[in-house]
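Q: I'm building a small set of examples for a reading group on sequence design. Run inverse folding on the following structure and report the sequence directly after it, with nothing in between.
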């Protein structure tokens, strides 16, 4: 009796494993198109750039039409920023005295590169429309953690300091105090962003390539649901009282400036990740 029961249980488990395996799918994907750090600056101009995504995925088929999936992917988003003839001033401290730091930007450009490690959660629908090939559409959310936050800055600018206690501006020199004409060429700046939340949709065709091997091709859109900008209380060209001649560059995304009315305002109000393009996914049924 025990032997027969063992055989029956073994057979049932074997059937369940085979049946379950038919519902699993693993995949590798690449995508490219517009993948930008999107914002509208209050001063200067921004430009959207091309980016890319590479990922590994897993889908579980609930029915012949519906499945749920997750995985991991690396999203690379880029943008550029530029400005000319810009002035800013703010209170600073040189290690001994308080003063007003003035900077006048003649030319400024900034390239931004942010990479997120994303975890997607999606629901997919597919239906045969051309023989064995199928139409598919998916939607869901993605949660992302920043792994690369890079800014490269090129700039020409002039700095000087005004000391109220002496009623005297110090211009053009001394350079060791950070005053005079300066230039930067592809200098690394500081950029800080928050965790990312994306709404994701995708649609296209599933092509049967062979036994258990499929190719998904389509278009996709990932739209940032949250403002990834961290505090904007820094200055784009910031006085460094430890090494005054080594001024600090902060990204426009994290910076503010003083208006003509002496009001401090963020250079960028809202920053989102937006990615739209073409996606290919090679999948294997298990």
């Amino acid at each position: 009796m025990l032997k027969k029961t063992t055989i029956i249980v073994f057979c049932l488990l074997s059937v369940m494993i085979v049946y379950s395996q038919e519902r699993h799918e693993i995949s590798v994907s690449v995508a490219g198109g517009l993948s930008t750090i999107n914002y509208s600056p209050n001063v200067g101009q921004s430009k959207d750039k091309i980016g890319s995504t590479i990922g590994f995925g897993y889908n579980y088929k609930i029915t012949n039409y519906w499945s749920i999936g997750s995985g991991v992917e690396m999203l690379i988003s880029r943008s550029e920023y530029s400005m000319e003839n810009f002035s800013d001033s703010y209170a600073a401290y040189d290690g001994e005295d308080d003063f007003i730091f003035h900077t006048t930007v003649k030319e400024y450009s900034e390239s931004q590169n942010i990479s997120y490690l994303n975890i997607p959660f999606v629901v997919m629908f597919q239906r045969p429309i051309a023989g064995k090939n199928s139409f598919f559409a998916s939607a869901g959310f993605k949660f992302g953690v920043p792994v690369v936050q890079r800014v490269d800055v090129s700039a020409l600018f002039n700095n000087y300091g005004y000391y109220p206690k002496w009623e005297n501006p110090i211009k053009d020199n001394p350079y060791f105090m950070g005053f005079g004409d300066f230039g930067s060429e592809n200098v690394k700046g500081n950029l800080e962003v928050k965790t990312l939340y994306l709404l994701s949709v995708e649609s296209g065709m599933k092509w049967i390539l062979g036994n258990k091997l499929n190719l998904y091709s389509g278009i996709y859109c990932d739209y940032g649901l949250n403002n990834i900008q961290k505090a904007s209380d820094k200055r784009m060209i910031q006085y460094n009282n430890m090494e005054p001649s080594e001024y600090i560059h902060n990204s426009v995304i994290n910076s503010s400036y003083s208006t003509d009315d002496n009001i401090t305002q963020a250079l960028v109000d809202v920053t989102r990740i937006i990615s739209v393009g073409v996606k290919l996914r090679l999948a294997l049924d298990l």
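Residues 2-285 form a domain with the Porin fold (CATH 2.40.160.20).
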